[in-house]
Amino acid sequence: MGEPSEDAVTLDLLREARETVRNSPLGVINTPMIPWCQTTLPLNISCNIHIKLENMQRTGSFKIRGVANQFARRSKDGHFVTMSAGNYGKSFAYASKHYGSKGKVVMPETAPISRSILIQSFGVEVERVPTSSLMHVVNRCVQEDNMTFLHSYDDLDLIAGHASLGMEVLEVNPEPDVVVVCCGGGGLLAGVAAAIKLSGCDKTRIYGVEPEGACTMYKSFIEKKPVGMDTKSIASGLAPPFAGRLPYKLCQRYVEAIVLVSDEEIKAAVSALYRSGLVVEPSGCAAFAAIVNNKIPELEGKNIVCILSGGNIGKDELANFPDCQN
């Protein structure tokens, strides 16, 4: 069986995944979407923005959506391996514990130790390796230990699960002009973009946001194929070593452009959100950073959705942000 093409992502597939996610025993939440004007957040553009609070999702990030759909479609007594800097690993571990399946997360050495400890607390094994060795170790687990690889962003079931977030956005805001989503490997961006475009919102402009030091999708758009790079960013969740193949194809089809934000802009965004009472990790606030730093064109007077994709930031990490002390 070949790898699925972007044509496999149909509205029927996404609607089916939406029901799977909605009814998942993992307790996925239909997260709130609030108007920016009902917060104390700064804004220097005259427009109508809604913020999707996926930082309040079960396990602290959107990743549980894709995981719910992946686990629903696989054998419950499997032995799974994945690679993750934290958020996918946490959702994967949560699901493994619920379903009683065995699991292992291969993590980059750069990921916060607190995240490894958390994942291990669900009874899942963790192996920390250099970022460049992630796939090598995953392949070893598949070949030598007969584990099944669950991909943390380049997987049809995962992307279809993430699309449920796009469907929820449209339930509140049926015709957004602009939707801004963070992008790492591209699974969330691809799922949200496919859900919105296949639902008939032809005029909606969808933007992905990546850190300058981890811009694999941005470079993939330029080179017209999925590429890898030596990634480095404070937003570790947006810094996988390569862009996903299926996410790239879907983003090419449905996404307007990829824009970049600096680590300094991401840091400032974490602090601004924290001061407004929203705990959002660096990877989760890239879309917000792009909007407040005027990286998205023609927002004036528009109806916009900004997705805050995750809130997993420990006290040890918050110490790096001067405005987030107590």
From TrEMBL:
Its cofactor is pyridoxal 5'-phosphate. Keywords: Lyase, Pyridoxal phosphate. It comes from the Eukaryota. Residues 27-310 form the Tryptophan synthase beta chain-like PALP domain. Pfam families: PALP. InterPro entries: Ser/Thr_Dehydratase (IPR050147), TrpB-like_PALP (IPR001926), TrpB-like_PALP_sf (IPR036052). GO terms for molecular function: L-serine ammonia-lyase activity; threonine deaminase activity. The keyword Lyase applies. GO terms for biological process: isoleucine biosynthetic process; L-serine catabolic process; L-threonine catabolic process. This is L-serine deaminase. PANTHER family: L-SERINE AMMONIA-LYASE, THREONINE DEHYDRATASE, MITOCHONDRIAL-RELATED. Gene3D superfamilies: 3.40.50.1100.
